[in-house]
Amino acid sequence: MILMILKGQFVKCIWRPVLRCNLKLNFLFTAQLQHRRRSVRDIPGPRPALPVLGTRWIYSVFGRYKMNQIHEAYRDMFQRYGRIIREEAFWNFPVVSLLERRDIEAVLKQPSKYPLRPPTEVIAYYRQSRPDRYTTLGIVNEQGEKWHMLRNILTPELTSAKTIQRFLPELNLVAEDFISLLRTTRDKQNMVAGFEEMANRMGLESTCTLILGRRMGFLDSEVDPLAARLASAVKNHFCASRDTFYGLPFWKVFPTRAYKMLVNSEDQIYDIVSELVESALKEERDTCALDAVSSVFMSVLNAPGLDVREKKSAIIDFIAAGIQTLGNTVVFVLYLIAKHPRVQERLYEEMHQLAPGRCPLRAETLRSATYLQACIMEAFRVLPTATCVARILETEMELSEYQLSPGTVVLCHTWLACQEEANFTSASEFLPERWLHDGELMRTSPFLVVPFGCGRRICPGKRFVEQELHLVLAKIVREFHVDFEGELDLQFEFLLAPQAPTNFIFRDRNE
Ligand code: HEM
C-alpha cells in the first residue's frame, strides 16, 4: 500500500512534470512542423477549386459574387476567410490577396530592379497575335529587361517635373474650358446630368494635350463623336480585361464574348489614336508646334532604337491609360467635396486667399495650397480608382505565417486596408486634416495610400495627374458651390467607377 502511495507520489512528482514537459515539447514540435509546412496551399479561400478551372466560377452565374462588384466580393471574402486568402486562376494557379498592413508593406517594399506586375494576359495574347502592330507587349504588360528598356526610353520626359511645369499654362486653359463646358451643359436647376462623360472628355483632352502636345477640342460644347467613341472603347477595354481576368478562362479555348469585346476595343482605340497621332504629326510638320507642349510627343517619336510600331503603341497606351482613370478620379474627388460642405468651404477659403477671382493658377500657388493637396490625398485614401496593387513575388516570402514561393501572384488590397480603423483613425470619415501637420502636408503611409502604385513600376502619369487634379478642383471650387444628389454607387470595371450616370449641381458663387 505504502509502496503504491509512494509510486503514485513518484508519478505525480517526477513523471507528471516530465510527461507534461514532453507533451508540451511534442505539441511545440508538431506546431512548428505545421507552421513550417504552411504553404500557399494551406491559405483559406473560396472553395471548391475545380480542376484546371480553379475558383473563378465564384464570379460566374454559379457563384455568389457579381463581376461588376468584385471590390465588394473581396471585402466579403476577407471577412469569411481571414486576412490572407487564396483564389485559383486557370490551371489552378494561386492568386493570393492580402489585407494585413504588414504583409502589404513587406511586398511593396521589396527592392527590385525589374518589379514584376502580372500582365493582363488577354492583352498580351492579343498583341502577340498582331506583329503587324506590336513588337512588344507594351510598357504596361512587358516584364524584365524589355520593360526596363521601354520605361527608360519612353517615360523620362513624361515624369520630369520640368515638363509638367511647362504644361501648366496649357493645362490652366484645359481646366477653364472644362468649367465653360460645365456652365453651358447645366440645366435650369444648375444640374449637369451624366457628369462622368464630361470628366472623361476632360481626361482625354488633358492627356492628349500632354502626350500629343496639342489641343484636340474634346471640350467644345458640340459632343465630339471621336471623343465619345474613344471613351466608350476604353471603358469596354477595361471591362473586357476584368471579365477575362476574373471570369472563367474559356477565352483561351475559343473567342468568347469578352475576348471579342477586347479585340474590338483594342482595334478601335488603335484606329482612333492612330488618327490623332497622324493629324498631330501632320500639324507638327506644317506648323512646328510649340516646343513647350510638344515635348512628350517628340521625345517618344525621337526615341532611339525603337521600332515605329513601338512608338505608336506607346502613345496609344499613354492616352488610353489617362482617360477613364482621370475621369473617374475627378468624379470621386468632386463627389467627396460635394458631400462635405465644411471641407468645401475651407478649400474655397484657401483658394480665395491664395488666388482670388479667376486668375490663372501658378505652380507656387498650387504648392502653397496645402489644404487642396490634403483633400486630394484624402480622396485617394477614401475612393481611389485602383483598389489594389498587383505583384509577382521574386523571392520566397513569409506572409501572415505562410511561406510563399517566387512566382506567386499577390494582390495588395490597399483600398480595403485604408478603410480599417487599425490603419487610420476614423477611417470611414473624409478628413483631409489628417494629412496636415502645422499646416504642412505629411505623406504618411506611403505603402497604403498608393493610388498610382509604387516603386519602379509606379504610374509615370502621377505627376501630371496630380497637377491636373489640383488645377481642376481649385478652379471648380473657386467658381461654384458643388452639390451631389443622392449617393454615389460604385462598380468594378477593373477600376473603380461610378455605377450610374452622376448628377452634380454647380451653383455660381456670388462674389
Ligand atoms: C488618375 C489617373 C491615374 C491613375 C489613378 C493611375 C494609376 C496607375 C496605377 C495604380 C498603375 C500601376 C502601378 C504599379 O503597379 O505600381 C499605373 C501604371 C501605369 N500608368 Fe497610370 N494612372 C493614372 C493616369 C495615367 C496617365 C495620365 C498615364 C499616361 C500619361 C498613365 C500611364 C501609366 C503607365 C504607362 C503605367 C505602367 C507603368 C509601368 O508598368 O512601368 N497613367 N497607373
UniProtKB/TrEMBL annotation:
Q: Which PROSITE patterns match?
A: CYTOCHROME_P450 (PS00086)
The stretch of residues making up the signal peptide is none
User: What domain of life is recorded for the organism?
Assistant: Eukaryota
The UniProt keywords, alphabetically, are: Heme, Iron, Metal-binding, Monooxygenase, Oxidoreductase
List the Pfam families: p450
Q: Which cofactor does it need?
A: heme
InterPro entries xref list = CYP11_CYP27_families, Cyt_P450, Cyt_P450_CS, Cyt_P450_E_grp-I, Cyt_P450_sf
Name the protein family. Answer: Belongs to the cytochrome P450 family.
In Swiss-Prot or TrEMBL terms, this protein is called: Ecdysone 20-monooxygenase
Give the source species.
Periplaneta americana
Question: What is this organism's lineage?
Answer: Eukaryota, Metazoa, Ecdysozoa, Arthropoda, Hexapoda
